[in-house]
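User: I need a structural model of alpha-L-rhamnosidase from Pseudopedobacter beijingensis for a docking pre-check later this week. Nothing fancy, just the predicted structure tokens so I can convert them on my end. Input:
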Amino acid sequence: MKIFKMNKKMQIKKDCRYRFRYIILLFFLGALQASVNAQSLAVSELTCEYRNNPEGIDVKIPRLSWKLFSKNRNIVQTAYELRVSEDMKSIAKGNNLLWTSGKISSGQSVLVDYGGPELKSRQRYYWQVRVWDNKGNISPWSEVKYWEMGLLSAKEWHAKWIQTAEETNGKPMPSPMFRKEFKAVKQLHRAKLYITSHGLYEARINGKRVGNDYFTPGWTSYHKRLQYQVYDVLPLLKEGNNATLVTLGDGWYRGYLEFNNKRNLYGKELALLYQLELEYADGSKELIVSDNSWKYSFDGPIRFSDIYNGETYDARMENKAVWQPGYNDSKWKNVREADIDKSKLVASNNVPVRKHEVFKPVKYITTPKGEQVIDFGQNLVGWVQIKLQGKAGDSIILHHAEVLDKAGNFYTDNLRGAKQENKYLFKGEGIEAWEPHFTFQGFRYIRIKGYNGKLDSTNVKAFAVYSDMSSTGTFSTSNPLLNQLQHNIQWGQKGNFLDVPTDCPQRDERLGWTGDAQVFFNTAAYNMNVAGFFTKWLQDLKADQLKNGNVPVVIPNVREERYSGTAAWADAATIIPWNFYVAYGDKRLLEEQYDSMKAWVNFIETTSKNNLSTVGSSYGDWLFYTPVDDRYGKGAITDRNLIAQAFYVYSTQLMINAAEVLGKTEDANKYKKLLPLIKEAFAKEYLTPNGRLVSSTQTAYVLALQFDILPENLRKQAAERLVENIKEYNYHLTTGFVGTPYLCHVLTRFGYNDIAYKLLLQETYPSWLFQVKRGATTVWERWDGIKADGTFQNKFMNSFNHYSYGAIGEWMYKTISGIKPDDTNSGYRHFTVAPQPGGALTKADAELETLYGKIRSKWKIENGLFKLEATVPANSMATIILSNTTVSAIKESGKSLLQSLSQENIKEEGNNVIIKVGSGNYAFECTY
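Assistant: Understood. Predicted structure tokens for alpha-L-rhamnosidase:
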């Protein structure tokens, strides 16, 4: 018995040990499974107001976005939790939180409103997010990101505006330098510089450049909106004596601008506003501000600086001692304080202009005229850096050009009044490095005068300079000419997206033409993240819009009021905000621009007669095909009033769309009643009973079809007439700026995709590939900027870097790769992948980085099979459309379609198979 009892006790102990081990094992397996689940779902790429860790914002309710990452298919977010703290160290532990959202049942992961207490000026806020998905997974907390507030009230500016004591009356002058010495009396903990200027500024502290931004404070409607920037300058400061120096350039504020040597369009005197806020380790604070204690001098090395005409730099006048404390500035003059309004100051919400690609010379040329020329191989925008040696007082002059003429000589006639000239005078102290400061050039070639030494990639290089937009889209095909066209489109965008969307970057113009911007916006949004860029520009459009609702043709507006209000240009006020909403799902921007949109459409309505727009189109179908030798028998002139009425219809439809999205039912109903009236007026005025338009041009039919103006029963024959017109011109386009963006879209929509491909792949003038075959590396302003015989078009209007015709890029993404946004589920929460091969292409590969993640459409035709690889980001959905096939003929990931995917998400419509899928990677295959 005792043995039995002993054994029983031992057995109980053994059972307990096993149970304990089993419990431990279960706990371990549970923890392991939780870890696996966590690893299968992650949150990353957090942004605030489209930016990574933005500093100095004045958006009082910032919006937060994040992306989900999972290897699994069909992942959607079911809930999220946000937490915000003012303390970096405690937020990761969940301590000392300013605000937590708690678990919110929502799939929203883009532009989520901060919902905590009112935000304070200068404060940095740290934030994290975690999410739940539809598979029961919980992500780990994301990495900690932050945003920092700027100055939310004009009262918080303690600095004074300062200027030079003598008035310059707007005359070109050497760049003034403003200087101040100060002492940091204790150990520093934090140092923030808030700075802006009339003109452009470059700031230094103790000789080190503040930030890596250029052309600050940027170009805005200066009298209504002047941006300031915020910099963390703690690394530039030291305990004890410090010195700051700010140099100003004329820039857009008072430099040469628009045409005919106009200058001083915003003001005659440069000015600086500088507020440096110091916080010491013991918590005490100190301000270093611009005031009458500062000094200035014109005796700096920048003797002349202008955006159009370049820079003259005399290195003999360099004195780097002025950057450092202890410099004897007794010969410098005292500044004067200026009474300039600070209420128009706004935090910069644009992406800054920065240096990007570096180009080395690809060819050294001695022209027939005997001039020394360097070819960088790419038409770019930026400047050239030199590292050369010369005698004191010797000079080197750089001129910039986009092309060489037929004989191979340097060509600058198309620059009109812009000199694009940089001049450097040597100090004579060994190898000297220099690049300009307040100017940029558009060029592929430079001509060098005054230097006889050796030039190579070690001492001459070119920098591409443009707004710091992240690349979002890539596109390539089996056709090298199309790939070069895509390259040209992207480089046209880079060169002309320097703070504002300019028409061209080289001649005496470089203005923010509204028509150019609106036709190119969709292509721009494929290629790069332009959300911040256009948010800023649209605010200036709204600011410069006339009181009666009329819209200037350039933004910021520097033209006379009489140039305002031309159809297709002023319609940027409606077209861009709507397309922005489609691309980014930004309802707040649509709301902020709504009154501007409405004012423009109401202006057309109140000035119209019998529902016909009287706005007109001053520029018509700008730079449409006009024959010189009458090869095809006629030109392509489209009635300007027809264009105006077509865009009246389009803008009215966009008002309906916007009003419905924003819940403005009364407005939506108003415009729904107006729309059929103006369509009817179009038909009475410009359409014959048999369906022929009074202007029998490609542009006329394209606009009427693109904007759904024609009655349903007349659309098919209108498309037929469009195709007949194209055939009359031997499969060439004849459209200008207005018709070109929509031409291939209309052809594809009405069943003429083969014709669209013929136009795209046409290699003779007029066509896109004619430019490519002529050696273009950007898109030209004119179809025949360089003619077939090697001569040039009109020198007064002939830019070789002008993105408007690059609007074909949208069709290439949407039709060749098939990646299309969804108007009804904006921001690519839902999208379509529906490639439509043609033109003998055997493959295409496109990617698009959206706010949800990366979309990919990669297809090829091989051995009689069409193979499509599609990627759908987590928390989004896609509709895949495969043409000319059946369900039974399709495989996905090696299985029959019905085995791989749910039958309820698959249907056939005509010759198309439509497949709805969730996130994940997919591989489709069918006969072709």
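Before docking, keep this in mind: The CA atoms of residues 484 and 772 lie 7 Å apart.
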